[in-house]
Design brief:
The protein has 406 residues and is an alpha+beta fold. The protein contains 13 helices and twelve strands.
Length: 406
C-alpha cells in the first residue's frame, strides 16, 4: 500500500473520533512535556550554579585550617591557627601557578551609623581580594598596601550594608561607621552581586585591611583562611597541588602524615554541584517518563477498542483483496500518528513549561536538543510498540468471521 494513502486513511479514521483521539494523546502530551521540562530545568539549574560559581571567581582557591580535635571533640575551624604570615609569604614567593593571594580574618560586629544599625560581620582582607572574588567598585576606592601596613581604619561596604545604614539618602563615601566601639571610614561601595548558589547575600559585606581586623578587633596573628586565584581556570588544580606542597613543607609535615589544612577549588564545588543536579534531573525525568508509559498503555487500549469496533470493516477490506500486512500497517499507522502528534504537542508544552520555570526561578533558559530528539524518537517507538499487538490482532482476523461480527 502507498505510504501517503496509508497516512490519509489513518488520519481519516482518527478524525472520525476526534474526542477519543485527543484524550488518548493526552497521556503522551503529559509524558513528553514532563520529560522535556525536567531535563531542561535540570540543565538550567546546572548552568545557573556554574554561572554563580564563576561570578565568585572560577579560578578561586580556598585554603582553610583543618578541623581541630581535642579529647575526641571536634572544635571546628575556629580553634585552628595553622595559617599565618609565614605561609602567606611562602606561597607568594614560591607558587608559580598562583596569580594572587590574600589572607582573610573575620569578626562579627554591630554596624552603627547615627540611629541606624545592622548586625553583620567585617572581613579583613588584602587589596587583591576584589580581583580574586570578582567584586567591582561602584564608587570610591579600594584600600591599598599602605593602608594594610598602617592598620588603617577604613572599609569598603556592599550595597545591602549601604541600604541598611544610610536610609536618608546620605552619600556613604567619607562617612564614619562604628563597628562595635571602633570607628571606620567608608572609602568605597561595591557593585551589587546578589545571592550566591547557597542563598547568601553577597552584598551584605564589609571589607577592611586584614591587619586592622587582626590588631584592632581580634588581637590575633593567624588567619582564618587564605583566598588565592590561579593563573587560569585550567591551572586551578596545579595551583592547589603546588600550594599543598608549599604548606606541607612550611608546616614541617612528614610524609604519610595528615595535612593540618584543607584546600578547595571552584572546580571541585562545580563538579559536586553538577553531580547532584545531574542525579536529580535523571530522577525527575525517570519519574516523568512513567506518565509516558501510561500514555502508551492508553494508546494500546484505544487501539484494541478500535479493532473491535471496525471488525466488519476489516473483514470487508480483506474480502476485496487486502492482505494481512495492509491491515496491520493501517492500524500501526494510526497508532504511530496518534503518538507523534501527541509528542509534538508535548514538546511544545514542555518548552513552554521549562521557559516559565526558568523565568520564575531566574535561571538561564536552556533548550535540550538531545531531549527533544529523544522524545520524538520515543514517541515513534511508543506508537509502534503499543500499537503493534492490536494491529497484529486486526491482521489475524478471519475474514468470514469478521463479516459476520455484530
Amino acid at each position: 500500500m502507498n505510504i501517503l494513502n496509508l497516512i490519509k486513511i489513518a488520519i481519516k479514521a482518527l478524525l472520525r473520533n476526534k474526542s477519543r483521539a485527543i484524550l488518548t494523546m493526552l497521556g503522551i502530551v503529559i509524558g513528553i512535556a514532563s520529560v522535556i521540562a525536567m531535563v531542561s530545568l535540570g540543565q538550567s539549574s546546572t548552568l545557573s550554579v556554574k554561572n554563580q560559581l564563576s561570578s565568585m571567581g572560577s579560578n578561586m582557591i580556598m585554603i582553610m585550617p583543618s578541623n581541630q580535635m581535642r579529647g575526641g571533640v571536634n572544635l571546628g575551624f575556629a580553634s585552628a591557627k595553622s595559617l599565618n604570615e609565614r605561609d602567606l609569604k611562602s606561597i607568594r614567593a614560591n607558587a608559580r601557578y598562583v596569580a594572587a593571594i590574600t589572607p582573610m580574618v573575620n569578626s562579627s560586629a554591630q554596624l552603627v551609623f547615627g540611629s541606624n544599625n545592622h548586625p553583620g560581620s567585617i572581613q579583613g582582607v588584602d587589596a587583591c581580594y576584589l580581583d580574586i572574588r570578582k567584586y567591582e567598585l561602584e564608587s570610591g576606592i579600594m584600600f591599598d598596601e599602605n593602608d594594610v601596613k598602617k592598620f588603617a581604619k577604613v572599609c569598603v561596604i556592599g550595597k545591602t550594608v549601604a541600604k541598611e545604614l544610610f536610609t536618608n539618602g546620605e552619600n556613604p563615601i567619607g562617612q564614619t561607621v562604628r563597628f562595635g566601639t571602633i570607628p571606620m571610614k567608608v572609602i568605597g561601595i561595591l557593585k551589587s552581586k546578589g545571592q550566591n548558589q547557597m542563598g547568601q547575600d553577597q552584598d551584605d559585606v564589609v571589607l577592611a585591611p586584614y591587619t586592622t581586623i587582626q590588631k584592632r578587633f581580634m588581637a590575633i596573628t593567624h588567619y582564618n583562611m587564605l583566598f588565592a586565584s590561579a593563573l587560569s581556570e585550567e591551572q586551578s588544580e596545579m595551583a592547589a597541588t603546588e600550594i599543598t606542597y608549599i604548606l606541607r613543607s612550611t608546616h614541617g609535615i612528614a610524609n604519610g602524615s595528615d595535612d593540618d589544612f584543607e584546600i578547595r577549588t571552584q572546580e571541585e564545588l562545580l563538579t559536586t554541584m553538577s553531580s547532584i543536579t545531574g542525579m536529580l534531573t535523571i530522577l525527575l525525568a525517570a519519574i516523568a517518563a512513567i506518565s509516558l508509559v501510561v500514555g502508551g498503555i492508553g494508546i494500546m487500549n484505544i487501539m484494541y477498542v478500535t479493532v473491535t469496533e471496525r471488525t466488519k470493516e476489516i473483514g470487508l477490506r480483506m474480502s476485496i483483496g487486502a492482505q494481512n500486512r495492509d491491515i496491520m500497517m493501517q492500524f500501526l499507522a494510526e497508532s504511530v500518528i496518534l503518538s507523534l502528534i501527541g509528542g509534538v504537542i508535548g514538546i511544545i508544552f514542555g518548552l513552554l513549561l521549562s521557559y516559565a520555570g526558568c523565568t520564575l526561578l531566574k535561571w538561564p533558559y536552556v533548550v535540550s536538543q538531545t531531549a527533544i530528539a529523544l522524545s520524538f524518537l520515543v514517541c515513534a517507538a511508543t506508537g509502534i510498540f503499543f500499537g503493534w499487538y492490536p494491529a497484529k490482532k486486526a491482521a489475524n482476523l478471519d475474514p468470514i468471521n469478521a463479516l459476520r461480527y455484530e
